[in-house]
Amino acid sequence: MFSKEYVASRKEYPELLEFNRDYDPPLLPGRYSCVGLAGDLATRLSVLENNYPGIKDATYQVSCEEELSVVERYYSFKEPPVTACIKEHVLLCIRICVAGRHGVMLFDPGYHVGEPITVMEDGFAPQSGVITASTARAEVHRTFRYRFWPGNTAFVVWDVKEERNGKPGKCLTSLIHVSRPFLSSVHVTERRNLYYPFKTLLGRDSEGHLTCGLYFPLRDCHKTSINLFHEVDGLQKHLKRPFSYFLSEATEDDVEEAVAAIAAGTGRSRCDLRASLVTVAHLLQDEDLVKQLLELNNATEGIGL
Questions:
Q1: What is the pTM of this model?
Q2: Are residues 69 and 50 part of one domain?
Q3: Burial class of residue 180, CB neighbours in 10 A (0-12, 13-18, 19+)
Q4: Per-residue pLDDT tens for 203-213?
């Protein structure tokens, strides 16, 4: 929608940067990024108000700065440095107190974590341990660990460890700002995700395990591929095809089967999902659009620490 509206408005907005400044990102029901998922989960959790009075007002969105390269500079503040952060991810947070000990309970539907994450300031029970994350590839193993940063309880450290069969492990650190609600998730985080250069559509079960999906990098249609996966007889089946496949009238049974399975697993019809992929393929033929999307992303990433 973002790209289509820009293309239709080129006479008024020759530059994507100017269009982006005026664009009002919508949240489409059932087609959520982390922002929409967090909002939807907050609505669902509100039914607990009858049993836990005050929980609705105590639940708030918090921002996350992912994969920081200069962690020390960031956590030296009590609040995120506004001019040097992107806030590309959103979670839900509830402050808790257990026998006089303070902590937070985090919920992260955007990263498919199927359980509440409890983080205590002193690091003791009921502190969550290592959480195994779901991945689209069996050979990729990813774990999450959470802790307050020593001496600065405004931030929760989110350590990510990723291992691939036969390759050295990779460790990444993100920081979640929990001391205050994040009030600008739509105009900051949702907007940033519009031109993030790696696109995904994922389906999962109630425990957060990925069951189907598709993903592709943002590039010229004839220079990029789309990956599709879904379950067949209890096993993940992966397909990779040139994105230009969706520009042709010729079809392949296994691709169409995958599209139908992904549509069903993400609450969409096969015709709707396929039409979206055809639209994206045509948009990715627009060299100037792709160039400006990548330039806008690079400019945004240049802000981060």
A1: 0.93
A2: yes
A3: middle
A4: 999 888 999 99
